[in-house]
């Protein structure tokens, strides 16, 4: 019986639990939060939707981390979101301690799981979780590329008035201002977007994608995006739980791929039962390589701040 655990019953964790239930990715879904009764209340509220929507997963909540036991996949969302005027890096210090303690619990209670980290600043937090758990790189993945790529695809679809399903596009690199929404590879059923949209419109979409999280923070004011972030984490979890071999952009520990080593960065990977099965490496243009290098340098600065 597949079990999914979600740490953090806040906005993203609850959205992830909701999508996981509706998409039936696991038979058991447990929400864990340190705030007494919060996860219990969120899980009960969600579970009561089962007769209406028709899902059948067992959904429950607790503040006891031993509930992680037996989980094939753990999604880590615990930690503060940013507010207007803040960068994701501003969260590093406070979220580092949270991620550290949660990763210790994951190591103790779910030593065989695939861990998907969502907490920001994501590339540094997934690095911290990698160090603390000591898991192999295949089982420690950061979620950002699925979300950033979804935003990029959505904005292209909106500009062209076509279904977002028919737009394919890839965002690599850091989850921050130096991310790389790749223009060369963006297409609508295989037709390059460069043949469908003027260069200025594409440049505008690339910039909006880079600032996509900040745009939502500026509207929400008290926190950050949660619906598509929760869905994106579940997309990754589903690929693992169902051994789908999906190609999704995840922040993973590079060991020479794309010319970089010992850094977490968003690249396209094949996801299956054991987590990351392989990195889909391809030739970058000189300009793309330079941009990826900037991303790598920015992540290295964040990683250094963790002291790990
Ligand atoms: N990677 C991404 O693309 C992405 C997207 C959206 C949000 N995020 C990040 O996800 C995190 C969560 O965002 P949110 O909107 O759900 O925040 P939130 O404040 O709504 O929820 C966070 C939850 O974590 C819980 N928590 C804190 N410390 C904990 C601990 N030690 N153990 C268990 N639970 C603990 C809190 O009680 C709270 O319920 C933030 O850091 C945010 O920046 C990342
Ligand atoms: O922008 C944020 O702080 C949250 C998240 O990283 C996002 O991109 O929505």
Automatic annotation (TrEMBL):
Q: Which reaction(s) does its UniProt entry say it catalyses?
A: (S)-malate + NAD(+) = oxaloacetate + NADH + H(+)
Where on this chain does NAD(+) bind? 8-13, 33, 95, 118-120
Listed InterPro entries: L-lactate/malate_DH, Lactate/malate_DH_C, Lactate/malate_DH_N, Lactate_DH/Glyco_Ohase_4_C, Malate_DH_type3, NAD(P)-bd_dom_sf
Q: State the CDD domains in the record.
A: LDH-like_MDH
Keyword terms, alphabetized: NAD, Oxidoreductase, Tricarboxylic acid cycle
GO MF terms listed in the record are: L-lactate dehydrogenase (NAD+) activity; L-malate dehydrogenase (NAD+) activity
The record ties this protein, via Pfam families, to:
Ldh_1_C, Ldh_1_N
**Where on the tree of life does the source sit, at the highest rank?**
Bacteria
Query: What region holds the Lactate/malate dehydrogenase N-terminal domain?
Result: 3-142
Positions of the catalytic residues: 175 (proton acceptor)
Example GO BP? tricarboxylic acid cycle
Q: Which residues form the Lactate/malate dehydrogenase C-terminal domain?
A: 147-299
What task does this protein carry out?
Catalyzes the reversible oxidation of malate to oxaloacetate.
The text of the family note is: Belongs to the LDH/MDH superfamily. MDH type 3 family.
**What HAMAP family does this protein's entry cite?**
Malate_dehydrog_3
Q: What is this protein called?
A: Malate dehydrogenase
What lineage is this protein's organism placed in?
A: Bacteria, Pseudomonadati, Thermodesulfobacteriota, Thermodesulfobacteria, Thermodesulfobacteriales
Q: Gene name, please?
A: mdh
């Amino acid at each position: 019986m597949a079990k999914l655990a979600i740490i953090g019953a806040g906005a993203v964790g609850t959205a992830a639990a909701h999508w996981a239930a509706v998409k039936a990715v696991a038979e058991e879904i447990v929400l864990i939060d340190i705030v007494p009764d919060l996860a219990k209340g969120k899980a009960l509220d969600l579970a009561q939707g089962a007769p209406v929507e028709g899902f059948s997963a067992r959904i429950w909540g607790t503040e006891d981390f031993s509930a992680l036991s037996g989980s094939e996949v753990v999604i880590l969302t615990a930690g503060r979101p940013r507010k207007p005027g803040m960068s994701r890096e501003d969260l590093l210090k406070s979220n580092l301690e949270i991620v550290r303690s949660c990763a210790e619990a994951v190591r103790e209670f779910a030593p065989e799981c695939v861990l998907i980290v969502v907490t920001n600043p994501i590339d540094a937090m997934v690095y911290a979780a990698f160090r603390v758990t000591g898991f192999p790189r295949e089982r420690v993945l950061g979620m950002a590329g699925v979300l950033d790529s979804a935003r990029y695809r959505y904005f292209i679809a909106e500009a062209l008035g076509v279904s977002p399903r028919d737009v394919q596009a890839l965002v690599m690199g850091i989850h921050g201002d130096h991310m790389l929404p790749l223009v060369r590879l963006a297409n609508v059923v295989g037709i390059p977007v460069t043949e469908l949209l003027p260069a200025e419109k594409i440049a505008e979409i690339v910039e909006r994608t880079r600032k996509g999280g900040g745009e939502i923070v500026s509207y929400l004011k008290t926190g950050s995006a949660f619906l598509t972030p929760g869905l994106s984490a579940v997309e990754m979890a589903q690929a693992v739980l169902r051994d789908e071999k999906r190609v999704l952009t995840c922040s993973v520990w590079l060991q020479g791929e794309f010319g970089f080593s010992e850094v977490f960065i968003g690249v396209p990977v094949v996801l299956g039962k054991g987590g990351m099965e392989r990195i889909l490496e391809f030739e970058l243009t000189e300009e793309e390589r330079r941009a990826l290098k900037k991303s790598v340098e920015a992540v290295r600065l964040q990683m250094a701040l963790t002291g790990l």
